[in-house]
Write a structure and sequence with these properties.
alpha+beta, 4-stranded mixed sheet, two-stranded antiparallel ribbon, elongated
Length: 159
C-alpha cells in the first residue's frame, strides 16, 4: 500500500504502519472475494514453519523486511528466501517448433561428480514458451556445428 485518500502518501512510513493501513482497508473486502491479504508475522519460528510447509501450496518463499523499513521504489532492499530449487541444464533436443517447444531433451549435470543425467521433459509450460521459446527460435533454425552427442550439439523439429 503506497497511498490512500485518507492516509496520504505511505512510501516513507515503515512497513508496520503501511500494513496496518492495508489491514484496515481489507476489513471492507467481502469474505468471498478472490483478493487475499498475504500472511505476515514477526515470529521467526512461525516464518520458518510457513517456509517449510507452504511450498506445496504454491507459496514461493518469504520476503524478509524490517518492520520500520520504508518502501523504496526500484530497489531491492528487502531479503528474499525462495523455496523453489533451480538447476542448470543443456538443451539436447527439441520437439515441436522452436517458438513453442512441446518437449525438451535436457542434460542435467550431477553435483556428485557422476555422469550427467539425460531425460525428456514432456511438459513444457506456457511460462517456458514465453521466456525461452524466443531463445530457441533465435538460432534461426540452424543446428550448431558438431556431431550428434558432442557437447552443445542439438537437433530440433522446425515447425
Amino acid at each position: 500500500m503506497l497511498e490512500t485518500a485518507q492516509d496520504g502518501a505511505l512510501r516513507r512510513r515503515g512497513l508496520r504502519e503501511r500494513r496496518a493501513v492495508l489491514e484496515r482497508l481489507f476489513r471492507r473486502v467481502p469474505a468471498r472475494s478472490p483478493m487475499t491479504l498475504a500472511m505476515q508475522t514477526s515470529d521467526p519460528a512461525m516464518a520458518e514453519e510457513w517456509f517449510d510447509t507452504m511450498a506445496v501450496a504454491g507459496v514461493g518463499g518469504l520476503a524478509i523486511k524490517p518492520a520500520n523499513s520504508p518502501y523504496v521504489s526500484g530497489a531491492r532492499v528487502w531479503l528474499k528466501r525462495t523455496s523453489r530449487q533451480t538447476t542448470d541444464a543443456v538443451i539436447g533436443g527439441v520437439t515441436g517448433s522452436l517458438h513453442r517447444p512441446a518437449a525438451l531433451l535436457l542434460e542435467v549435470g550431477s553435483t556428485l561428480g557422476s555422469d550427467p543425467l539425460t531425460y525428456l521433459d514432456g511438459y513444457v509450460t506456457a511460462l517456458v514458451h514465453s521466456r525461452h521459446g524466443s531463445c530457441l527460435a533465435g538460432t534461426g533454425g540452424r543446428e550448431p556445428a558438431g556431431n550428434a552427442g558432442d557437447p552443445g550439439w542439438w537437433s530440433g523439429h522446425r515447425g
